[in-house]
Write a structure and sequence with these properties.
Elements lengths: L26 E9 L8 E14 L2 E13 L4 E13 L4 E10 L2 E13 L2 E8 L3 E6 L4 H13 L4 E5 L12 E10 L6 H5 L6 E9 L11 E8 L4 E7 L4 E11 L9
Antiparallel strand pairs: 1-2, 1-14, 2-3, 3-4, 4-5, 5-6, 6-7, 7-8, 9-10, 10-11, 11-12, 12-13, 13-14
């Protein structure tokens, strides 16, 4: 599951996050997930995503993300556990990432690297699973992606497209996204303490499709998601279609943080 597939999720296709783009609010969010519908192979699923976004210093976002899910099949269950840790420049020019994936307690993947954007090029350097270096057309990084979506929505845009690099091992397949942005308006969409943290904020329904060189010749995406996106970067009401199965979830816990006191607003 890509990092951006939760909520790191433009003003223009392939553009780096512009100066003055929307500022994401530091926060910790927890999402409870369930199977959206049964499939031939998967009859049940439950999971949780913990999303912890901080600003440890001015100009830098730090993200600690964990996604744990248990899938039930006819005769067995499978436990998956993914953790992603990133640091991303708020100017959209730098990105460091490390990710671990476990299945039933056994490590299946470990990815580590960095990327930087300059001019019309994003350069990627990986350490794990192997050392390599390659260039991509200028691409958004995950949190810049979210900030640019908010900026586009606030500007009245209803369709947004971008090139995206999110740390995936198959980055050379050139990931792009197309998003439909529909305004919900101001006010609380949830009751209770979670809703209180979002009261009065503008929000949008986002319908987003991901494409790369493996996409179906008929134009079908490799991944599709829908969610509510608030102006501070918090997401809710998530639906994620992975093709073989789909998950749905909602925000169950939310703690809002703040940027360092000496950072310019």
């Amino acid at each position: 599951m890509r990092l951006s597939r939760l909520c790191c999720i433009l003003a223009a296709a392939g553009a780096a996050a512009p100066a003055g783009a929307a500022t994401l609010g530091p926060h910790r969010a927890v999402y409870d997930l369930s199977l959206a519908s049964q499939t031939q192979d998967i009859v049940s699923a439950e999971g949780r995503i913990a999303f912890d976004l901080t600003m440890p210093e001015c100009g830098v976002y730090a993200l600690d993300y964990r996604f744990v899910a248990r899938f039930g099949q006819e005769s067995e269950t499978t436990l998956t556990d993914q953790r992603v840790v990133t640091r991303e420049g708020t100017d959209g020019r730098s990105f460091e990432f490390e990710a671990w994936t476990y299945v039933d307690g056994m490590q299946q993947a470990h990815v580590k690297g960095s990327a930087s954007s300059e001019g019309e090029v994003t350069t990627v350097e990986t350490e794990l699973p192997g050392e390599r270096s390659f260039d991509l057309p200028l691409s958004q990084f995950p949190l810049g992606h979210t900030a640019a979506l908010i900026e586009a929505a606030q500007g009245g845009e209803r369709i947004a497209q971008l090139a995206l690099f999110d740390g995936d091992e198959d980055a050379e397949k050139l990931l792009t996204t197309t998003s439909i942005l529909l305004p919900v308006g101001s006010g609380t969409q949830k009751n209770g303490p979670v809703g209180e943290g979002l009261a009065g904020m503008d929000s949008w329904k986002v319908d987003e499709s991901y494409f790369n060189s493996d996409s179906d010749a008929d134009g079908l995406p490799i991944f599709h998601t829908r969610y509510t996106l608030f102006e501070n970067g918090v997401s809710d009401d998530i639906f994620m279609d992975f093709g073989d199965y789909a998950l749905q979830g909602s925000l169950s816990e939310l703690t809002l943080g703040s940027a360092p006191a000496d950072c310019e607003s």
